[in-house]
């Protein structure tokens, strides 16, 4: 297997960056870790609808105030957003039963489950959650002091809490750089993930970008099947699969460039099996 060269699909003007992507009903849904909005993007012309997640929502939120949305996924109950959990105010869940019915919760059940497995407050930094059948796959970014780049398999109990079934530390060290998880999505019997390298050992502070890689995990064992560095300059923090065949899977990619320039470039990549 291999990933093809990254393609530039176009620019979405008015969105600063991406921290997660979701392909649903022929639309791209995008979250940004420094914004109070969920963005519904039309992929044919890259126009978008900005859906507020709170009253008086802001398009650009200062780092010390942001809720740091990093997780977006959908199930039969709607679209769900989670903060990274890297600070107390970032332990938040926002759900949409549909795009007009919003529910915000400060429940910490997901974060409690991860913390119970030895992830300290300084190392807690959730970047992705994806679901396959009845199993949830939760990704903690290992950019904290203990470098706990870890995937958890979990199941959801009737009271809404998460029970961790297994976990696996995955070290991604290439070119004298540690690459750590930034997003993931399920694609058939694989999980495809993004990881980035930054010159920082903090879950709070950004560092100089060292590049991005894409990788493939076997969904049952979480074994790394393949990795490939795809950029030396981009920090990709969003990936979602929008089309598949027997031989090729097609993905949208988006980056978090840590800038406030109001332009989000959408990229594409294919995984050839």
Task: Give the key terms.
single chain; 273 residues; mainly beta; five-stranded antiparallel sheet; 3% helix; 55% strand; globular
Explain what you see:
- This protein is an all-beta fold.
- Helices cover 3% and strands 55% of the residues.
- It contains one helix and 22 strands.
- It has one helix at residues 109-115; strands at residues 2-3, 7-13, 20-24, 27-31, 37-41, 48-52, 69-75, 78-83, 93-98, 101-105, 126-132, 135-140, 150-156, 162-169, 172-174, 177-187, 190-198, 209-218, 224-231, 236-244, 248-255, 263-272.
- The strands form five sheets. Strands 1, 2, 20, 21 and 22 form a five-stranded antiparallel β-sheet that branches. A five-stranded antiparallel β-sheet has the order 15-16-17-18-19, with no helix packed on it.
- The mean pLDDT is 94.
Give helix % range.
Answer: under 10%
- Which range does the strand content fall in? over 45%
> Termini distance?
4 Å
Mean pLDDT: 94
Radius of gyration: 17 Å
Describe the main β-sheet briefly.
Answer: 5 strands, antiparallel
Briefly note the structural class of the backbone: mainly beta
Q: Uncertain segments of ≥5 residues (pLDDT<50)? A: none
Number of strands: 22
Count every helix, treating DSSP H or I runs of 4 or more residues as helices. Answer: 1
- Global shape: globular
SSE pattern, N- to C-terminal: EEEEEEEEEEHEEEEEEEEEEEE
